Amino acid sequence: MSQAGGQKPAANRMTLQTFKARLGGASKGFKLLKKKRDALKAKFQALLKEIVDTKLKVGEGLKDGAFSLAKAHYASSGDDIASTVIERAKRPSITTKLYPDNVAGVSIPLFKMSYDASKDSSAQTLGVACGGAVINAARETYRKAVVSLVKLASLQTAFHTLDEEIKMTSRRVNALEYVLIPRIEDIIHYITQEMDEQAREEFFRVKKVGRGCASSSSPSLKTEVVEKKKVKLQKEKDEMAAAGKRTEAAIDAPSMLATKKDEDLIF
Amino acid sequence: MELSMFNVSHGFTEAVARGLRSGFLGVEDYRRLGTCDTLEDMRSALEETDYGTFLQDEPSPLLVSTISKKCYEKLADEFRYLKAQTVEPLTTFMDFIAREKMIDNVCMIIQGALNNKAPKELEEKIHPLGIFEGMKVIMSESFDVQGGFDDVYRIFLVDTPIGPYFEEYLKEADRDKDEMARAGIETSQVGGILTKQDLEIMKTSLKKAWLEDFYSFVMSQGGTTAEVMGHILKMEADFRVLLVTMNALNTNLSTESSLQDRNALYPNFGYLYPEGTKELRKVFNDTTVRAALEPYSKYLQYFDQVKDFYDAESGGRGQGTSFQSIEDLIYAENVHMYEMAFEQQYHFGIFYAWVKLREQEIRNIRWIANMVVLNTKDHIDDTIVPIFQPRM
């Protein structure tokens, strides 16, 4: 890639083609990335809405759970069941697995919950003398709350990952739009200009060479032709001055070749 | 005979108990507690009652469990004071009341030991009413499970009054399904037995043994005590049968193979005994329960009222907040029974009734505290049972 702002590359057709190809690639990439970023943003908004809903649900679920726990405390003749439950918990009956999910080309982690009721058995006989059923009811309520919690966890990790992804894509889009493409365009512009200059130089050189050969014929015609030449040169000089390139050297040189005046035209 | 001699030995204690009766929270107090917004408000509301400034030293923020614990400690203090004034046989009677809580404590310690919990944590959770000598010894050293169990066993069986219940349970627990119970237990085997058993079932069996022992003691007292306490304990036994049956309905205790375990938890006295329990032994779902309870109209009524709560569990999930479970109904019935006990004089029943009513009050306070914290104060009234409501 051109690091030094475009002074380096040789100004010929081949490099022009190369850079034109690069520009095409860059603009296509830019369009695609823009589409990806927009799609991600839309998903993001939807995700945000879902998160708000799920958070509310989790709040409700935990509140219900706390209420049923209070009921369980009351029913189990005021004993402290919380410690007993904790003591008896040996194996987890709810496990979660992490799965990768694909959204608009981005890989997002997702939690899947699996509930194995048979592992709950350690607490089945809890409170068989009093309050057992209420304790089980409390457990059911909390299990439902855990389901929403796992969902919320998935949503929040997805949110986080998407956020990172969107930032990165935005950065790339902006870089393409404001840095890369202008740079390539500058280079192309410079190359085209350089090539035009070269063409004019070539044209001019050929004409001068031709004039030099024709200067050996009649001197009277010579002055007319020289005058005509001078006018033409002046016109060209003005054009060059308008283009703003280095022209002074080219104009001063003809004094040596003023005697020649061959009108060989070059394409 | 009784009328004249009772007051000689027990007059003072009965008077103190009746004095304490007036310290129960009244309708006004419950209303005031119901309007609290935070636990701090509850603290100041309780200051005006007989509870006084018992929460003063607790740092804020207050927890529901702290309030509950402090209430129990107050009850334990008053209980110990009362017990200190007694003479035989009232002392044994009050000891019986405390034994129920001792069983709870011991089971909790065993559970904690099995999980290698630090003694400090166990100390936090003991029930203040059930403290006995030797308990400090068990908890002060950090012991490994196998070796420590020998000490624990020795202390339990020898020093405490709940030793015999343990012995009976261990014998039952160790036998195979077909053989008879063994004659005695070696010390070293205890650790092995205790680790295998389901502690919850052990606790329930111990309580059953305690209840039967209590009943025989009470009947041996004769007179009004036997009449009043006999009735109370019979109802207690019946409720226990009902509770075990209902709570086991949806668990694996109701399967064919485990029915015997469940039936071992039925006490061997009560109004349901022997015909009712014989029927109930075969029960394993709602319809069979209903059929077994047919002859007992009151229990049938209870069952019908709470049936929905238990149905909703096995099927879909009903609105748990509005349904009552059988424990709620039993508590209400118990309170009524205990209030009746105070109507008669010259018997030991009022002490038992007083302890149980205080427990119910603490349950009420705990429920109100939970509702205050959860900000669902409208549910308070569905569940608490007001004690000694004025009869208009």
TrEMBL record, chain A:
Keywords: Ion transport, Transport. Coiled coil: none annotated. Signal peptide: none annotated. The keyword Transport applies. InterPro entries: V_ATPase_D. The keyword Mitochondrion does not apply. Gene3D superfamilies: 1.10.287.3240. NCBIfam families: V_ATPase_subD (TIGR00309). Belongs to the V-ATPase D subunit family. This is Vacuolar ATP synthase subunit D.
Automatic annotation (TrEMBL), chain B:
Signal peptide: none annotated. The keyword Glycosyltransferase does not apply. The keyword Transport applies. Keywords: Hydrogen ion transport, Ion transport, Transport. InterPro entries: ATPase_csu/dsu_sf, ATPase_V0-cplx_csu/dsu, ATPase_V0-cplx_dsu, V-type_ATPase_csu/dsu_dom_3. Transmembrane segments: none annotated. Belongs to the V-ATPase V0D/AC39 subunit family. V-ATPase is a heteromultimeric enzyme made up of two complexes: the ATP-hydrolytic V1 complex and the proton translocation V0 complex. Subunit of the V0 complex of vacuolar(H+)-ATPase (V-ATPase), a multisubunit enzyme composed of a peripheral complex (V1) that hydrolyzes ATP and a membrane integral complex (V0) that translocates protons. V-ATPase is responsible for acidifying and maintaining the pH of intracellular compartments and in some cell types, is targeted to the plasma membrane, where it is responsible for acidifying the extracellular environment. This is V-type proton ATPase subunit.
